[in-house]
Amino acid sequence: MKLPTPYALGGTYYVETVSAGKETDDETVRDCVVCGGHVYADDWHLVTGVVDTTGGRQRHHHCSDDCLTEWLRLMATD
Ligand SMILES: [Zn+2]
What we know:
By secondary structure, the chain is an alpha+beta fold. The chain has one helix at 65-76, and strands spanning 2-10, 13-21, 29-31, 38-40, 45-52, 57-62. The strands form two sheets. It has a four-stranded antiparallel sheet with strand order 1-2-5-6, with helices on one face. A two-stranded antiparallel ribbon has the order 3-4. A hairpin with a 4-residue loop joins strand 5 and strand 6 (57-62). The longest helix has 12 residues, at 65-76. The chain starts with a strand and ends with a helix. The mean pLDDT is 93.
């Protein structure tokens, strides 16, 4: 889902997209950036697309909406 208005995280970072991801890749396991829990690529999880206005994009993976909310709160605190 592309946000109608990018959400400012501070600095040059903006959240551009938030989506639910599920990939066919069953080997990739990522760490949730908030709780450190496992995020399996082949299971449903939340993916945040962050754009850096100086160039570049990042994707962050979150195990739950609670962790996404917490992450946004942390990131937006300057
Ligand atoms: Zn988490």
